[in-house]
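subagent[fold] <- orchestrator: predict structure for attached chain, return tokens only, no commentary.
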Amino acid sequence: MKRFSISLTAAAIALSVSAGSVLAQDDEVTKLRIQTHFSTEQLSGEMAARFVDDVQTMSNGSIEIEMFYSSSVVKSAETFDAAATGILDCDMTGGAYQTGKNPAFQFAGDLMGGYVNPYQQYAWMLHGNGVEALNELYNAHDMEFVGWWIPGPESLASTKPIRNAEDFKNWKFRSPPGLATLVFKNLGASPIVMDFTEIFTALESGIIDGADASSLANNVGLGLYDIAEHTNFPGFHSMPADHLACRKDVWDAMPEAHKRILTVAMEATGLRTSTLTEVKNGEAFASLSEAGVNMYAWAPEDIAAFRSAVQKGWEEFATTPESKALLEAHLTFLRGIGAME
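subagent[fold] -> orchestrator:
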């Protein structure tokens, strides 16, 4: 009886120590300030809010996120630097905004004309050593790439017809920085790089004829089709991947459980974003068609001509060792799955 009593006491002590360890772990709190360029009214903004709820629920409140929408702290393209320098902790915009630092960031955000759908691109990230390849670039800038959320192929918004590449001649439009400006300029357009939040006003005032902004559903959320009566659908010209990237020291200081929660939550956000965008794009197509917006489905030969121009642009844009390496990583994967010759 005496030995049994001692054993019970030892077990109780072990349980107590174990419980104490769990409590100590639970006491670790990660606080993150994150900015996205999307508004709460847009589909992607709703997905960002769902991401916050997922993370805070799965972590039982031990990860606290303050999300800033519509680039309310700094301009969209400045979010990455704001996170890297401590104004924010994480960036939930997109890598392609950082092409001024290194053209490799173009291939960290949008391989224009490369991937046909988001699932191919996620496959490279998850199964083609994409995370490792991206973090060779991000870590060099004191940031950690965590994951992508990809709405899918984008549609243009225009106050003029955009039936084929010929209509791009002298077409003045909002362009994101990077490869898009080069490709469209080579096709005769006049790209103007401006912040995501400035598009509606520029379109309304006639500063631009159109915009390369986002998916059909997100463009509706921006109110672009209240002004622009022309669009292309299905989209094909661009499929930017928005990212979650956090300052390296912030990421490294997190408990492993918190890192896993954020990574898995981003994978869920990516799947949810891509699938729901597909649904919402279909609904937007029906409502916009009924409202009289002109919807142009490009002919296969016109799409092929555009993609040919983009592929020439890849080589022209990849001017640094990092950009060449990242481009080749994508192309090797695409060839390996039979999606490119």
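orchestrator: received. Logging for downstream: The first strand starts at residue 30 and ends at 35. Confidence is low (pLDDT under 50) at residues 1-25.
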